[in-house]
Write a structure and sequence with these properties.
seven-stranded mixed β-sheet, Rossmann fold, about 220 residues
Length: about 220
């Protein structure tokens, strides 16, 4: 999928939804604040969120850690409109840099430092090219830096009917749990690329993962 194709798809889906995204998603995008609380970048560290959407997490992190240099990347220009407006309203526009790009286009520009932390909040379950997105993000980290992920899990400890309803609902938004994502993180760990910590949220409704880059 080209950047233009992805942008068109995301803009079509979020052109109207972006206006109600934050108040509606807070009921089922669980664990986002737990992920943010685990961001332990050093003073003045550089942090990127891939798939930043309306900027909700960036605003929360900027308030929690005003020392950080924050960046947000998203495929959707419509979502970035909302993020930009919300940052201005919160008085945080000067602390956060936004840009439109695909997840697999994460790169450290010449003259820039690698990132201390990169966040994926309920985005890997939407990104068709999730594997190169993870690999590029890991490459863009400093040694000792961390990938922070929160996303839907397999709901294995919840009633079967609940999982069936949730899966059908999520497909309306091009979202799906991909077991291969966690297998890929474990494979990277097995290759010595870093160490993985994984915890379940709400009876495996979701998971929170931290991968600390080796070296």
């Amino acid at each position: 999928m080209t950047q233009a194709d992805a942008a068109v798809l995301m803009d079509r889906m979020y052109r109207l939804q972006r206006h109600i995204y934050d108040p509606t998603r807070k009921y089922y995008l669980l664990g986002r604040d737990r992920m943010l609380a685990g961001v332990d970048a050093p003073q003045g560290g550089r942090v990127l969120e891939v798939g930043c959407g309306t900027g909700r997490n960036l605003i929360a992190l900027a308030r929690r850690r005003p020392d950080l240099r924050l960046e947000g990347l998203d495929a959707s220009a419509e979502m970035l409109k909302s993020a930009g407006s919300k940052l201005v309203a919160a008085g945080l526009a000067g602390q956060v840099r936004l840009r439109q790009a695909l997840a697999e286009e994460v790169v450290v520009e010449a003259g820039d430092e690698p990132y201390d932390a990169i966040l994926f909040s309920y985005s890997l379950s939407m990104i068709p090219t999730w594997r190169p997105a993870i690999d590029r993000a890991l490459t863009a980290l400093k040694p000792g830096g961390a990938l922070h992920v929160v996303d839907f899990w397999d709901q294995a400890e919840l009633p079967g009917w609940f999982r069936a309803v949730l899966v059908r609902w999520l497909r309306l938004f091009h979202v799906e749990h991909r077991p291969a994502v966690l297998r890929h993180f474990r494979a990277l760990e097995g290759q010595g690329r870093g160490t993985v910590e994984l915890e379940g949220i709400a009876r495996r409704y979701a998971y929170r993962l931290v991968m600390r880059k080796g070296g």
